[in-house]
Specification:
CATH topology of the largest domain: Phosphorylase Kinase, domain 1
Pfam family, one: Pkinase
Order of helices and strands: EEEHEEHEE
Organism: Naegleria gruberi
Number of strands: 7
Number of domains: 2
Structural class: alpha+beta
CATH class of the largest domain: Alpha Beta
EC number: 2.7.11.1
Radius of gyration: 16 Å
Distance between the termini: 33 Å
Helix content: 10-25%
Shape: globular
Strand order of the largest sheet: 1-2-3-5-4
Keywords: ATP-binding, Kinase, Nucleotide-binding, Serine/threonine-protein kinase, Transferase
CATH architecture of the largest domain: 2-Layer Sandwich
CATH superfamily of the largest domain: Phosphorylase Kinase, domain 1
Protein name: non-specific serine/threonine protein kinase
Length: 151
């Protein structure tokens, strides 16, 4: 199997998210979203998220590495994994005015990109859908994730 050390780290409206080791990519840690579908309508909905993410090239939007359909009617979306977690896990000492301004600026930049360049409205902005890429006492870099409810 391509993925090992599989641990569930989240559950959403369209599927589960797992932290995995990708044995075909230098044993990198990844996040994979496993989405089951029962009908062609379901498949079209989840393929929309995958195709949208595959076209994105923005520093504040989660990178999708691959996506494919398995034999058991599941879609796998392979994405980068962020060890520092999401904004809901951000410790209070990092909630300074400077860092919050950076979070807002980067989030708005990502939203502007998907809205203007791709005609996508995210519809599910919340701390658990914004991941921390890098963090110091005076700098934060974030990525926006989970386009499952996007239109």
């Amino acid at each position: 199997s391509r993925y090992s050390n599989i641990t569930r780290i989240g559950q959403g409206a369209f599927g589960s998210v797992f932290k995995v080791t990708d044995t075909k990519d230098r044993n990198r840690l990844k996040a994979i979203k496993l989405v089951k579908f029962e009908s062609l309508t379901d498949l079209n909905t989840i393929m929309k998220e995958a195709s949208q993410l595959s076209c994105v090239n923005h520093p504040n939007i989660i990178k999708m590495n691959d996506y494919f359909i398995t034999n058991d009617k599941s879609l796998i979306i392979d994405m980068d994994y962020y060890e520092m977690g999401d904004l809901a896990q951000l410790k209070p000492e990092y909630c300074t005015e400077k860092l919050i301004q950076q979070i807002l600026k980067q989030s708005l930049s990502a939203l502007k990109y998907v809205h203007e360049e791709m005609n996508i409205i995210h519809r599910d902005i919340k701390p658990t859908n914004i991941f921390i890429k890098k963090l110091t006492s005076d700098n934060i870099e974030i990525v926006l994730a989970d386009f499952g409810l996007a239109k």
